[in-house]
Model the fold of this input.
Amino acid sequence: YEMGVNKAIYLLTFQKENDKSTFLKGLGYSINNPEKLKGDIYCYTDILSLTFSHYSKNCLRCIAKTILHGKIVTTVWELKQNFIIRFITLIPGGDKKWK
Done:
C-alpha cells in the first residue's frame, strides 16, 4: 500500500470544498498525529470488500469498506500497473453503501 503522511495531513486540514477534517476530528483524529489516521486506514480497511469501480489513467480505481472508530467510511484506492495500491481518499458516510 502507498499512502504518504501528507495525504493524512491533507485530510485533517479544513478544505472549503469536500472537507473531511471535521468528520475525522469528530472521530478523535488530530492534525498533530496524522500517522494515527494513516495507520488506522491501513489496519481497518476490509480488503475483502475491495470493489473495482472503473479504469482510469492506466490504473484501476477501487473502493473498500473501512471502519474508523466504529464509523464505516468508503476508501478509494488505485491499483497501478506495477501492482502498487495507492490510497486516494475517503468518503464519510459510506455506511449506507456497505449495509
Observations:
- The chain has three helices and four strands.
- The first helix runs from residue 5 to 11.
- Residues 37 and 47 are 17 Å apart (CA to CA).
